[in-house]
């Protein structure tokens, strides 16, 4: 590999890792300037019912041995009293206060500590306080560096956090505002209901194939897979549970024997009542399927139909909950800086809410590359020896739903926003796959969203008629190239 190709890779890795190096070196210089003996470190290991606490100086002198504190008001008062006593006794110039953000258990104490020491945190009182959260994965790695195997206790976690604090690691503590918290809760609720919806759809498909065999068949896919075979006669070909033709049957006629017993007028009346239209084409489709389907015996079909009906009712209810959740989000987004994301072509209120829920507080990140790394899209570097430039796949060390949301945002903006479309097409023309090109678009939309939220600036559409024309021209070439790649893969699979 030539030097010309190595340099860009090294520059990219330097950019990705620079924020870590800068943070550590800056803290070490600051620590040397202040004097380690003038830095007080107070740490918590947060639990559900019991917290652990300890305190020491930056030179390693243990001032308070690790001890338990109840999570009650008395425990909080005792902890604050200890901190106040240490500040009066030691007279430090800097106090580092930190712990892991442990689920939801840290939130009540964190809010109380932020309120109690707000003047010190804001630079309005001395000594200066810095309140940090430590990434639990980072704490685990620091603990394993000491013991080289799995040795976890609460005091050992405190020792690992002390090691991180002495290196200046961790990120500024943050707690969501009321609006941010509501947005995050609604997004998490929608994601949970969406996962449930997918599981219900799998169960419905299985039950449907058992009770209504051949009702759902993709004819194009069937024809490609079985050329020369007679085509089946399904009720629906794709997206069965979004089609009114099938939804009416599952809701009002889940047993196929009920359908066979109904007259044409009864079928038409049922569909006209719930859909609004029905005619001879519908009747012909239903009768053709019923004549060709091999149904289970009536005594078996009855309990299966009852279960299918209950599953579909739960499916409809889950759909309703998702729509209600999206409705709750719409009035919340305009109250935040995420409102600037909504006007980006291809995006909307839900995308803005997902981005805001993913980053939490935008102020805890200094640059968009940190968000990219936080999501898990940063590449793994494992270069060594004669291959110092070796870069692997993305780390995926982050929030999978947030990572998926960013990917979807990159895909939709690549379809609707010319500057992002050209980013996508340039990556594809360099030989990257469609997925990799979409990740390139997601990388750019992440930088845009980060800037808009960090500086609370409105979105400026930088598309021009020239870019739109270029997008249209190159999109046709992209579709042709995509088709050519697909045909080449098929020819490659046919080779012996």
Short description:
This protein has four domains: 1-30, no CATH class; 35-175, 2-Layer Sandwich (Nucleotidyltransferase, domain 5), CATH 3.30.420; 184-329; 339-494, no CATH class. Helices cover 61% and strands 9% of the residues.
What about the largest sheet?
Answer: 6 strands, mixed
Going across the biggest sheet, name each strand in turn.
3-2-1-4-5-6
What does the radius of gyration come to? Answer: 30 Å
Number of helices: 19
Q: Overview of this structure, please?
A:
The chain has 19 helices and eight strands. It is α/β, with parallel strands linked by helices and 496 residues long. The strands form two sheets. A six-stranded mixed beta sheet has the order 3-2-1-4-5-6, with helices on both faces. Strand 1 and strand 2 form a beta hairpin. The N terminus is likely disordered.
List key phrases describing it.
496 residues; alpha/beta; Nucleotidyltransferase, domain 5; 4 domains; six-stranded mixed sheet
Chart the SSEs and their pairings.
Blueprint: H1 3-34, E1 39-45, E2 50-57, E3 62-70, H2 73-90, E4 94-99, H3 107-116, H4 118-121, E5 128-133, H5 136-147, H6 154-166, E6 171-172, H7 178-211, H8 219-225, H9 244-252, H10 256-261, H11 264-274, H12 280-292, H13 298-329, H14 349-359, H15 368-375, E7 379-381, E8 391-394, H16 400-416, H17 418-429, H18 434-455, H19 465-494
Parallel strand pairs: 1-4, 4-5
Antiparallel strand pairs: 1-2, 2-3, 5-6, 7-8
Helix pairs in contact: 5-6, 7-13, 7-14, 14-16, 15-18, 16-17, 16-18, 17-18, 17-19
């Amino acid at each position: 590999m030539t030097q010309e190709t190595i340099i860009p890779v090294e520059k990219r890795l330097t950019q990705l890792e620079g924020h870590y190096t800068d943070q550590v070196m800056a803290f070490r210089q600051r620590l040397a300037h202040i004097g380690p003996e003038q830095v007080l470190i107070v740490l918590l290991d947060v639990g559900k019912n019991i917290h652990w606490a300890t305190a020491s100086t930056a030179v390693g002198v243990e001032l308070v041995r690790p001890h338990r504190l109840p999570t009650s008001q008395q425990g909080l008062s005792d902890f604050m009293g200890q901190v106040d006593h240490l500040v009066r006794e030691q007279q430090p110039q800097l106090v580092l206060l930190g712990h892991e953000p442990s689920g939801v258990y840290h939130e009540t104490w964190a809010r109380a500590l932020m309120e109690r020491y707000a003047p010190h945190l804001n630079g309005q009182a001395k000594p200066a306080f810095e309140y940090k959260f430590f990434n639990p994965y980072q704490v685990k790695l620091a603990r394993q560096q000491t013991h080289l195997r799995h040795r976890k206790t609460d005091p050992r976690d405190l020792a690992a956090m002390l090691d991180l604090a002495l290196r200046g690691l961790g990120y500024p503590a943050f707690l969501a505002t009321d609006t941010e918290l509501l947005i995050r809760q609604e997004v998490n609720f929608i994601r949970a209901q969406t996962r449930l919806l997918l599981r219900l759809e799998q169960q419905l498909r299985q039950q449907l194939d058992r009770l209504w065999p051949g009702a759902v068949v993709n004819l194009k896919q069937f024809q490609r897979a079985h050329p020369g075979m007679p085509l089946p006669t399904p009720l629906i070909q794709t997206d069965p549970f979004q089609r009114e033709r099938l939804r009416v049957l599952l809701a009002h006629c889940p047993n196929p024997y009920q359908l066979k017993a109904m007259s044409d007028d009864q079928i038409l009346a049922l569909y006209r009542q719930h859909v609004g239209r029905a005619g001879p084409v519908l009747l012909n489709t239903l009768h053709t399927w019923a004549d060709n389907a091999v149904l289970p015996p009536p005594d078996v079909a009855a309990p299966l139909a009852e279960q299918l009906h209950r599953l579909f009712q739960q499916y409809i209810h889950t759909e309703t909950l998702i729509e209600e959740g999206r409705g709750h989000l719409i009035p919340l987004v305009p109250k935040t800086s995420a409102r600037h994301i909504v006007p980006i072509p291809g995006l909307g209120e839900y995308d803005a809410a997902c981005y805001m829920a993913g980053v939490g507080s935008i102020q805890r990140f200094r640059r968009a590359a940190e968000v990219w790394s936080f999501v898990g899209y940063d590449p793994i570097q494992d270069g060594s020896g004669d291959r110092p430039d070796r870069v692997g796949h993305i780390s995926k060390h982050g929030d999978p739903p947030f990572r998926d949301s960013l990917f979807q945002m990159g895909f939709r903006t690549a379809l609707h926003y010319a500057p992002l479309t050209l980013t996508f097409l340039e990556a594809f023309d360099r030989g990257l796959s469609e997925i990799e090109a979409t990740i390139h678009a997601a990388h750019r939309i992440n930088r845009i969203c980060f800037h808009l939220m960090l500086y609370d600036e409105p979105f400026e559409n930088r598309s021009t008629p020239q870019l739109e024309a270029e997008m249209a021209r190159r999109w046709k070439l992209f579709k042709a190239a995509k088709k050519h790649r697909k045909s080449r893969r098929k020819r490659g699979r046919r080779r012996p």
